[in-house]
Amino acid sequence: MKSFALVRADDPVKVRIALHDLETYGDIQFSTNPRCIETDYADALLVSVMGVSLRSRCNSAALVELKNNAGAAISRLKKIHPPAHVVIISPKHQIFEEITGEFQKYPEFDRLFSQEGLNKAQGKEEADKNEE
Length: 132
Fold this sequence. Notes:
The structure is a single chain. By secondary structure, this protein is an alpha+beta fold. 42% of the residues lie in helices and 16% in strands. It contains six helices and four strands. Strands 2-3-1-4 form a four-stranded antiparallel sheet, with helices on both faces. It starts with a strand and ends with a helix. The model has no long low-confidence stretch (mean pLDDT 87).
């Protein structure tokens, strides 16, 4: 059964890195390309799924449909530490049907890294700073 991953962060680079980390280190498979969603909607999704009040607003967000079921995705997510807030949304959540119906309407999230973003994703940024 499919699920979704909601990725929220302070900036688009952190969302890109988190998406990269989910696939590379979490071995989580995407069934579609990630979609860019409005930050207010992402914040509302978080509140709906987690059932708690919002502590901080995000400045960038993406939603991606997963091939993995929710339980497997959550288990794998616990083993990695992406630089963004990631929430798995399963069919048991009330908002799931709404997301499923609206998902294809959102524009694709730009996953291309600048050289700086690519270095950060690969952990080279710190190594480069240490060499200076």
